[in-house]
Design a protein that fits this description.
This protein is α/β, with parallel strands linked by helices and 294 residues long. It contains ten helices and 13 strands.
Length: 294
C-alpha cells in the first residue's frame, strides 16, 4: 500500500474547511497537497503509508542515490559544527546544562557538539544514521520515532527538532509529546519553513520545500498557535535563524576551491538579511526558528 486513507479534517485544528491545493508529480509516487482555510496549515493528503515513509530513510537517502535524498553530514562535520556551536551558544542562554534530546538526530553532529555541556539523547527513524551515532554515544540513542521511545516524562532541559517537524504525520501529537518530555522551564527548539512567507507564496507549488518526506507545512502563525495551545509559553520566533550570519558563511566555505567562490557569500548574506524584512506584513523569506519554553 502506497497511501493511507484520505482524511477530511485538518490534522492541526480539526476543522473540515480543507481544500485541494495541487498535485506534485515530479517523483515516482505523486502526492496531493491540501490547505486548511481556517488555520493555514498545509499537508499531504492522503499521506504516504508507514512502509513508504520508512523506505525513504535508508542508506540511499544519505548517499544521494535515491530521488529524494539528503546530505551525509559526516562529510562536512567540521564546517557544520560552526552552526551547531553557534546554536548551542544561544540555547545555553536558556539552559546551561542538563539533559538534551535531539529528535531526528541523523548522524549526531549536534549531539556530539552538545555533549560538552549536556547529557545527550537522540531519536532517529533511520537505522542507517541512527546506529552510527549510537555506536559513538551509546544507548541514549533511540532508533525509532517519538511514538515508541522509552524516555521519561519531565526529563529533558532541551529538546531540538531541526528541520524535523515537517516530516511528522501528526504535529499535534508531536508537540504535545515534546511538552510532556520537557521539564518545567525546559526549552523546545524548532526549525522549519514558513509556508506563509512571500518566498513560499511566490514560488507556489514549485517551492523547494514540497518534498515526498515533508508531510506537514506550517506558517509562523499556525505553528505558534499550536505551541500555545499545547501549553508552551514565552515563544520567540527568530528569522531567518537564531545564531546569525557568520556561522552560515563559515559552513558554506567547505566546497570553496578558489577566491571567486567567496562571491557565494553575497547570495547567502542577501537571503539572510531579507529574513528580517516584511512586505504587507509577510516575511520575505521562509526560514524560521522557534524557541518555546514549557
Amino acid at each position: 500500500m502506497i497511501y493511507r486513507p484520505k482524511i477530511s479534517n485538518c490534522p492541526l485544528c480539526g476543522c473540515s474547511e480543507i481544500e485541494f491545493a495541487f498535485t506534485k508529480n515530479n517523483f515516482t509516487h505523486p502526492y496531493d497537497i491540501f490547505n486548511c482555510n481556517r488555520c493555514g496549515f498545509r499537508f499531504m493528503n492522503p499521506m504516504f503509508s508507514d512502509k513508504i515513509i520508512s523506505a525513504m530513510y535508508q542508506e540511499n537517502y544519505y548517499t544521494g542515490s535515491s530521488e529524494y535524498h539528503y546530505v551525509d553530514e559526516r562529510d562536512n562535520f567540521r564546517y557544520s559544527s560552526f552552526v551547531w556551536k553557534a546554536r548551542l551558544k544561544k540555547i545555553r542562554k536558556y539552559a546551561k546544562t542538563g539533559n538534551f534530546l535531539d529528535i531526528g538526530c541523523s548522524f549526531g553532529g549536534l549531539l556530539l557538539n552538545a555533549k560538552k555541556y549536556f547529557f545527550v539523547y537522540g531519536i532517529e527513524l533511520s537505522a542507517f544514521s541512527g546506529n552510527y551515532i549510537k555506536k559513538l554515544i551509546g544507548d541514549s540513542i533511540h532508533i525509532g520515532s517519538i511514538r515508541d521511545h522509552n524516555f521519561e516524562k519531565n526529563y529533558f532541559n532541551v529538546i531540538s527538532a531541526i528541520e524535523l517537524i515537517e516530516h511528522t504525520d501528526d504535529p499535534v501529537y508531536f508537540i504535545k509529546e515534546c511538552y510532556s518530555l520537557l521539564k518545567p522551564g525546559g526549552l523546545l527548539v524548532l526549525q522549519t519553513a514558513d509556508i506563509g512567507a512571500l518566498q513560499a507564496e511566490n514560488a507556489g507549488e514549485n517551492y523547494h520545500y514540497y518534498l515526498p518526506g515533508h508531510l506537514s507545512y506550517f506558517s509562523e502563525k499556525c505553528l505558534t498557535e499550536l505551541l500555545k495551545s499545547s501549553g508552551f509559553s514565552k515563544i520567540k520566533v527568530f528569522r531567518p535563524v537564531e545564531f546569525g550570519l557568520i556561522p552560515k558563511l563559515r559552513k558554506s566555505s567547505k566546497d570553496f576551491k578558489k577566491p571567486t567562490d567567496y562571491k557565494k557569500w553575497i547570495t547567502i548574506a542577501k537571503y539572510h538579511f531579507s529574513g528580517y524584512l516584511r512586505k504587507k506584513g509577510k516575511p520575505l523569506t521562509s526560514s524560521m526558528v522557534l524557541y518555546a519554553v514549557k
